[in-house]
Amino acid sequence: MIITVDEIVQSTTAGFAEKYPHFKDFISKEQWFPYWKLCVQALQDRDLLGHIIFCNDLFSIPPVKTFLCYYAEELKAITGREDARLDDYAKKAIGAVWGYVFKVVFDYAGQKSVSVSLNKQFMLKTATCYGNPQKKLVLAY
Fold first, then answer.
1. What is the mean pLDDT of residues 43-67?
2. Nearest 5°: CA angle at 119, between 113 and 122?
3. Tens of pLDDT along 92-120?
4. Is 108 left (phi over 0), alpha (psi -120 to 50) or beta?
5. SS3 label, residue 30
6. What pTM was estimated for this model as a whole?
7. Do 1 and 104 touch, CB atoms closer than 8 A?
8. Nearest-10 crossing angle of helices 63-70, 72-79
């Protein structure tokens, strides 16, 4: 499957809130919008997406962990905390975004929860890793 970052962003922005109605506030409420905006920014970055997919597929590093570590400084600014501690809703919503991308957009059929040990920063203990892609994925420009 050949997919562009524009198609990934369009699919995610169009379908995320419908697929995960519990997280519709993540997109629309002022307090959550900076996190949503950061997720969309990640989806627009072809190189970062390639790293996220590579880390997930080859090393079983969940997309959420790669995303959080990559954007640690931005998340410190958003949270106003040096440890960038995320509340439960933000953690779950960010995880749902990556779940949507991998399961719906990229068509991965498997998933498993793994330890991520981000307790000192973000306060995240586990995250989901995705497997069993149904199609070979190629990111295009």
1. 97
2. 90
3. 999 999 999 999 999 999 999 999 988 78
4. beta
5. coil
6. 0.95
7. no
8. 70
Summarize pLDDT for 13-31 with one digit per residue, the tens.
Answer: 999 999 999 999 999 999 9
How does DSSP assign 52-96, residue by residue?
HHHHHHHH---HHHHHHHHTHHHHHHHHTSTT-PPPHHHHHHHHH
For residue 57 the two structure tokens come to 């597929």
CB 1 within 8 A of CB 134: no
Place of tokens 């149904």: 134
For the chain, which residues make up each domain, given as ranges?
2-140
Token pair, residue 111, equals 């998933």
Long-range pairs for 71-74: beta carbons < 8 A, 24 or more residues apart: 71/38, 71/42, 72/121, 74/38
pLDDT score recorded for residue 118: 86
- pLDDT band for position 134 (50/70/90)? very high
The two three-digit tokens of residue 27, written as one number: 């997109």
SS3 5: helix
